[in-house]
Amino acid sequence: MIRVPGFEGRRVAVFGLGRSGLTAARALKAGGAEPVLWDDGISSRMQAEAEGFVVEDLTAADWSGFAALVLAPGVPLTHPVPHWTVEKAQEAGVEIVGDLELFARALAALPEGKRPQVVAITGTNGKSTTTALIAWVLKQAGLTVHMGGNIGIGVLALPEPVPGAVYVIECSSYQLDLTTTFAPDVAILTNISPDHLDRHGGMEGYVAAKARMFAHVGPGAVALIGVDERWGAGLAAEVEGAVSVGVGGQYRPSAGQLETPWGAIDLSGARSLAGRHNAQNAAFAYGAARALGVDHEAAVEGLLSFPGLAHRMEPVGQIGQVKFINDSKATNADAARQALASYERVFWIAGGRAKAGGIDDLAELFPRVVEAFLIGEAAGPFAAALGEVPHRISGDMASAVQQAFEAASKTGREEVVLLSPAAASFDQFPDFEARGEAFRAAALALGARPVGAA
After folding, report:
1. What is the DSSP string of 106-166?
2. CA-CA distance, 350 to 377, in Å (whole number)?
3. Residues of the chain with pLDDT under 70
4. pLDDT of 141-157, one tens digit each?
5. Which residues, other chains included, contact 273 with Cβ-Cβ below 8 Å and sequence gap of 6+?
6. Given this model, what pLDDT does residue 454 score?
7. Is 413 exposed, middle or buried (0-12, 13-18, 19+ CB in 10 A)?
8. What does the alpha-carbon distance between residue 241 and residue 236 come to, in Å, rounded to a whole number?
């Protein structure tokens, strides 16, 4: 755990007692603060009480006595409307922060020679893979690495800082919205496309939240920014000394290849970096590793040996010549684009709870779709968007997997059954992980041999 200083003997309100909220309360308490907790859910409040925390109804609390409000990232700060805790804090002049800001302050309070380094990653798509890939490359190079934030372990639950360690932190736009001093040593933006617009009041607010990653990039820090869309390109032009990744950038990724200032890297033999988008992820990882002093050979070796992440273009099994690829993390069209562009032919499973624009922007990739199998609430709208592209409404995951396999196996050639939903999972599953596991289970039930099985 990372102890949070600066609030010794002072009351700090904590609202939202999920993973980040409870972790923040523990870190504050360890640093000498007096956290006061509340949540709308009874079970969350009972868990907090069981841990010995003060649980107090913040609707009736005296807010003038609080030094800060620690807000869980899932609680609205500004849109669609500010949460009532936000209004009460603002009326009382109480600062509002999140766990990422507390993490930043904890590290800043350390003597300069004892501060670890921080690599922070944000973006609409690819940030989890990039985060895991960076952590892997640095570990393979022999560094002490702690990975967390919006992936895996909450940032304040990571091990206490020691000199020489590197924290690799995935940052969501919600978390960044609650930062004021966060200053990573390597700051990365993978890309920006419309997402979470209801929480940020539109695209301008969403881009502004992502831009907070670079607000305090100082001398000696490195900013790596994807420039393949106008928002990233615009941000790269505003951040002094930014290193661009993309078409015309200082790092130029293509399928199976990465051009860098130190020469070309052949990624065709990489275990889990198929497609141009993964070459872009590799560019960020390589750039981060080099910025932290890892030599070229060690960085490349780490890239090539990366095992990949579950639900991100994950090969889950094969029957004969038919491969099953789980890309359940593709919860919007832009994410699904990366998977569709990686294969010449796919039997595509898509659908769920559609986001703004649906799959209209993927039309140029429809010729790669041999047939689509549609599930969930978006099945009808997606069918309309596909038009003359062969498709059927399968309804549920098990039916879609079976129908896709039967169609693929009839061609007599190597084929790919791809789950890349281009939609959220919440109509049929609690999260994208559960959706991906349902796909895996359906494939295995048909007799698919897990990847790596003898």
Report:
1. HHHTS-GGGPPEEEEEE-SSSHHHHHHHHHHHHHHTT--EEEEESSSB-GGGSPPP-TT-E
2. 11
3. 451-454
4. 999 999 999 888 999 99
5. 267, 279, 281, 282, 303, 306
6. 44
7. exposed
8. 9
